[in-house]
Design goal:
This protein is α/β, with parallel strands linked by helices. The chain has three domains: about 300 residues, Thiamin diphosphate (ThDP)-binding fold, Pyr/PP domains (Rossmann fold); about 190 residues, Thiamin diphosphate (ThDP)-binding fold, Pyr/PP domains (Rossmann fold, 3-Layer(aba) Sandwich); about 120 residues, Rossmann fold, CATH 3.40.50. The chain is about 40% helix and about 10% strand. The protein has 25 helices and 20 strands. The strands form five sheets. Strands 10-9-11-12-14-13 form a six-stranded parallel sheet, with helices on both faces. Strand 9, helix 14 and strand 10 form a beta-alpha-beta unit. Helix 11 crosses helix 12. The longest helix is centred in the middle third of the chain and has 31 residues.
Length: about 675
Amino acid sequence: MGYSDVDQLAINTIRVLAVDATSKANSGHPGAPMGLAPTAHVLFNKFMNFNPKNPKWVNRDRFVLSNGHGCMLQYALLHLFGYDVTLDDLKNFRQVGSITPGHPESHETPGVEVTTGPLGQGFANAVGLAIAQAHSAAIFNKPGYDLFNNYTYTIFGDGCAMEGVAAEAASMAGHLKLGNLIALYDDNHISIDGDTKCAFTEDVLKRFEAYGWHTQWVKDGDHDLQGIEEAIRKAQEVKDKPSVIKITTTIGYGSKLQGTGGVHGNPLKADDAQNVKKAFGFDPEQSFVVPQAVYDLYHKRSAEGAAKEQEWNNLLAKYASEYPTEHADLQRRLRGDLPEGWEKHLPTYKPTDSAVATRKLSEAVLEAIQGAVPELLSGSADLTGSNNTRWKSAVDFQPPEYGIGDWSGRYLRYGVREHGMGAIMNGLAAYGTVLPVAGTFLNFVSYAAGAVRLSALSQVRTVWIATHDSIGLGEDGPTHQPIETLAHFRATPNLMVWRPADGNETSAAYYSALTAKHTPSILALTRQNLPQLQTSTIEKALKGGYIVHDAPNADIIIVSAGSEVGLSVDAANHLKEKHNVSARVVSIPCWEVFDAQPKEYRLEVLPDGIPVLSVEALSTIGWERYSHEQFGLNRFGASGPYKKLYEKFEFTPEGISKRALATIEFYKGEKVRSPINRAFQNLV
């Protein structure tokens, strides 16, 4: 079926809405929406299956705008197709409190799947969404019940193509042969610095071909609607490769600045905006005008989507009677709930149990819970044996033709692609049926910091198994020993950073991470063995901080986390035996969780009147919130056996005791206030 004047009118309406919204806000990026309007029109009106009245229908096609600065394209489409995005919302583009922020945010706007903006991230999210679809289909689809068959579409631009995170994700998608993934490349030759010939002259399609993608090129993306449609249809037919379609467009099409960097990141001048409206048949004196014919065209497509969802719901009802167990499992996953009683599988430990590295204790948790939490997908960035992320019976997620796994596999081999892994995990989490857990060294979670930040901002449940968490990794030396890493992540809002000190705290970290529906977690774990603490329990650790070792009339409190908690207990014993000094030891495995406890409880743990020394073999930054004096490592580590390193930097009972005594002496005769008592505590 061909294209009519109404199709062109719809395309021009999208363009003019982008012009009006950016003009009213005096901020934004009109160029990409104006150039991409034909591509988006064909994709949404001819191919995408969705129901605006239920944006969370699980088998909807997923759309990711990776070049998120062009979000007026997406907001215009959401409004025109009947999502709960009004014309007033478009008029409030980029304003405080609006649901049309400057880049798409998944928890703000109905119909936005993932939070995009930092370039390349959305592309990688799309790979995660495609993996989740392929896995969910393998788990839940049955003969005659094709419950999961949606596509994931992403639009990306030159900026995304330049970012390394997209390259990592594209490489992995090609390896995995994700035929359900279709990427549309906006080839407009403009980035912020101007014409891409200044920095980006590679053949993008050849690169994607080398990754194992199916490639096509539509040379006239401004007019050739039929060509765009045929290319997408052909991409849908390719089942054994992801597809990329290069669509050559003119940025800011219709503006007198079209094809230049001048229309990328600035609203059009008033006279230019008026000329654009005239050229497209709109009244230049009016703004935010949508012809009824455009609403009619798009609402017809939305009604078809609603009918498709109804068909799917009918199929699901039949599925429920034939496969009640699978149906119940699916419904539970979609609610974000964990299986009843799963936590009873968490290992617990006694003080007499042997000393074990927390990375091994983490492996024990995975081994114990993997059967009880079937949505858990684990993986590692090529460090499986070091991160201990794979349970014994795990099957790899792989195309069956490789003979090393299948689509139902729950273990992902991310390869050496930490940044791509983080962004892919965000896509997995956004799909709604799986819970992604993955590992690397703590130091190399820094490679993925951009993705971790978006996990927190997007409010998705991802879990990082971050091993080799300090100088305790030993001989690999400063390049691998994290110092500043946790200070960075502890400073990130809506991110739980756990650094457990023993087995019970490790189990608590998992309980917290898996039950936090809208918060990602990083579990910082040791390479070296740690003793099981005398008084630790899962319940105590779940308060985020608690008293591990107490003493009547304590002279000092030593507060710590992870591998230094056991050392601090040894220091307390040393202080008593050698100096007749009483010390309380407090473990704070998770600052975020401890901070959420009632003030009364926190003051019981860290009361007024006693000086507090913090001890952690990492940066001291941040510990001032719980201590008066800080002992840590504010320099890079060194290469050598870990016990020798702890001696070198004086993380020993004697070294800690020396600093404890100095702290006691310094605060002698002072009325010491608890670090919990702060000036802003009663301010909202």
